[in-house]
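The pair is quoted verbatim underneath.

:::
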Amino acid sequence: MSAKEEIDKLTEELKVYQDKYYKEGISLISDNEYDRLTDRLIELEKEYPEFQHPDSPTKRVGSDLTNDFPEVRHTIPVLSLDKAYSDEAVLDFFSKSIQKEGGALSFAAEEKIDGISMVLYYEKGILVRAVTRGNGEVGNDVTPNIMTMPSVPLSLPESLDIAVRGEVYLEKADFERLNAAESDESKRAANPRNLAAGTVRRQKSSEACRVPLTIYCYEGFWNDKTQTPPDHIHILSKLKALGFRINPHLAFFDSDKEKAREKLASAGLDGDAYAFSEIDEFIKKKTAERKTLPYEIDGLVFKINELDVREKFGYTEHHPRWAIAYKFEAPQAETELLSITIQVGRTGRITPVAEIAPTKLGGSTIRRATLHNQEYIDELELAIGDIVSVSKRGDVIPAVESVIEKNDKGNTTFVLPSECPCCHTKIVQIGGLQYCPNYDCPDQVKGRIAYFASTDQMDIETLGPRTVELLYNAGILESIEDIYSADYSAAADLPGIGEKSIKLLEKGIKESLTRPFTTVLSSLGVADIGKKSAELLVRNGFDSIDKILDAADRGDPDSFASIPGFGEITGKRIVEAFSSDRLRATIEALRKAGLHMDSSLDREENAEEQTFSGQVWCITGSFKNFNPRSKALKEIEKRGGRTVSSVTSKTTHLLAGEGGGSKRADAERLGVRIVSEDEFMAMLGTKDDGEKHEDGQLFLF
């Protein structure tokens, strides 16, 4: 028998043994025999790596080679969820969704596992990437560690291109056992989630495989839309058939219990059926069960079942409009409300903020908490000097929840001022929110400029909020368009600014002229158009600012609403925004300044410098000039190169920084060219000029 034939035979045998053991709990052979076969396969794969299967059972064992975790861009929406803190809020979500749709809807409810969000990407049925949530757009590729998890299929019974979202977690009993076994008290994890998060990022997958992580999967995204099941519960059913673990504690809501029961049965799923009127009963039941579950949950997730309605409702920049997370009671503390300050955002929204006596909450000291709006203050009957209960909603955002004890100073319920605290324009009410309608309000202007220049937008590194404030107060910057026409030499007379800082600022502004059209579009600050929305617009034909303006001139919100993920409300908002004379004047000024207002300009710019065309690059280690490393990836892609997350025989270059691990060894073995950071800088036609900038701020000399 040849080496290839033996590897093929052992691979298939061990896959059968693993599937039976991990999915059905059946041992077909003894542990000793299983270990003997596994060791033999490992030995053969080391000697003949070219014959190793991409879904080899040895991936479960892990490797002692050091992994690094490159950043990978997601191809599906990986967003957070809107939050609810009462059964009334969940029922309100149900009723508003039904009213908005104008017809019957059903809803699935799942436990919100307190773990690590993960996206599993399969190509032709083979697991090719496992990526953390990251910032929702870019996550870390942790594939080697996830491959060690028996609950994650390495291959599927069908040749599918699919992305699967799930939550990686550690059961309570395993956490207690592992923590107790750790002799060094300082290395013990605070909770199962922390230990799971640390394991997912272990440098050696052979260490990760010793922690019994598992996963529940809850969403599937088919690359071929025609293969997508008709609704959410059929997606869950299909995922289960493909070998994924789905949470058996599924609940399903419809107008009456019998309808819910019938739909669950049609999908072939077990679960609890409820009528809408039983929300309160369901939440009480799950709250009581929480402590008895073998894993941690921090809430419940309610989703519209019908996929066509989900597409119609679409997404905001932060969350889908078709789902909501009910959060269990958050940690709370008591403190005194010292005062209320008023913030004016870049859109003019007025937000009251509670200034509270410093108090410990959730491991940190907080001094401020959100109050939302006047309606919320009225509901609490909140007054200065009251003793209040403060929580961290979602374990992140401090919020005033209730009044524990009224003040003894005679202070009555706080009322927002009738005028903008910045420009003294009369405040207007829009829905439940208050706004300053003055587009020229200084706080709004400074907010728009700072947003435009921020790291996530045009990335003018030396133009942060403090610098914007300084230049605005000096009359040098009074609008976004002024960034490109201002005479910065006048700033030399300002306290703390010298010629070198002005040169750094001008350099940052010049570099921003190369930003692609999608970045310019999202930086304008239009509601509902962030980076993802801008990319969707371009992919759906709106690849220039003129096409967007033409649609606005026609009063055609449907052309935007028809884009998957947008919806009717977003379409109307875009038309309204781009009908504004002020925004149009800004756009024209930016166009004259040389910013990209057409995606073809991006292509032309790239076409002039395709020096990496036909090359396949991989990255390892850390860098002085590229932090995060995604900046180096962008430079490669701008010049026509392709980037990959691992070194293979098709890789042409490895960009190697400090601390690189197994990828360098792979590159040396395969004869891949290894490029140092200095060599890479030379290839880009750039040198390290030694200029360092503070995070988003101008150096003050």
